[in-house]
Write a structure and sequence with these properties.
The protein is an all-alpha fold. It has 9 helices and 1 strand. Helix 6 packs antiparallel against helix 8.
């Protein structure tokens, strides 16, 4: 008979650690919320946690590339390496935490995004394969997230009408569009076309790409707006 989910979990490396890591993300939020940033909103503290995860995920996912960025598309559908297994397990624990937070906060788009992400990562961790494309996808998703979350932090800190805010917006938009709209589609195509990938991995890749495209038009508008703002400020200084 096929193994049960519980039997699979007992054989998965880092299975016990993932529970502790998930609890750790909740505790980190509590410390940030009740300690460091009490005067700001709960969303502010959650985004600080998200920035920390993004940095961790970028670091671990990059370590998974066999030949640097050139190795991002290598071994699609193949067995997981040790760095890939660790990378996916750490991020899976975070996304479980953030799914709970977003569900409670009513952030429906993020909940949808997280379902696709968790489905893909869980499949990779449980079945021990597809780590190459899942970690590459994780890298492409997370590399724009520090500037995304910093944008909201700056807004709450009252720094909207500053050069720093505009530069951060341009950085976010540029990285997002390059990673998710330019590099992302070929990776998703290889993931979907790979015969050894599970259906949930293929659906996860397609779902994340669909959500990225849905967000993409708004981010293009943001890029144009901030570019005009910075260029306008530059022209004003010249005229003075």
């Amino acid at each position: 008979p096929p193994p049960t989910v519980m039997a699979l979990l007992t054989r998965v490396k880092y299975a016990s650690e993932m529970t502790g890591w998930t609890v750790g993300w909740f505790l980190l939020f509590a410390v940030i919320r009740l300690g460091f940033f009490r005067k700001y909103s709960a969303d502010f503290s959650n985004r600080v946690v998200s920035i920390i995860h993004a940095v961790v995920a970028i670091y671990y996912s990059y370590l998974c590339f066999e030949n640097g960025f050139a190795g991002m598309f290598n071994n699609v559908g193949g067995p997981n390496t040790e760095p890939q297994q660790l990378c996916m397990a750490v991020s899976l624990s975070y996304f479980v935490y953030d799914l709970v937070y977003c569900s409670v906060s009513g952030e429906l788009e993020s909940v949808l995004h997280h379902f696709f992400t968790i489905g893909g990562l869980a499949s990779g961790v449980l079945h021990g394969k597809s780590g190459a494309e899942l970690c590459a996808c994780l890298f492409l998703m997370e590399v724009s997230n520090p500037s995304l979350h910093l944008r909201t932090l700056l807004l709450e800190m009252g720094l909207k009408n500053t050069t720093l805010f505009s530069l951060n917006n341009l950085t976010f938009a540029s990285v997002f569009l390059a990673c998710r709209i330019v590099v992302g589609p070929p990776l998703v195509w290889k993931t979907i076309a790979c015969p050894t990938n599970d259906l949930i991995v293929k659906l996860g890749g397609f779902g994340i790409l669909a959500v990225s495209i849905m967000w993409g038009w708004r981010i293009v508008a943001m890029f144009v707006k901030e570019a005009k703002k910075l260029l306008g400020a530059g022209e004003t200084k010249k005229n003075k």
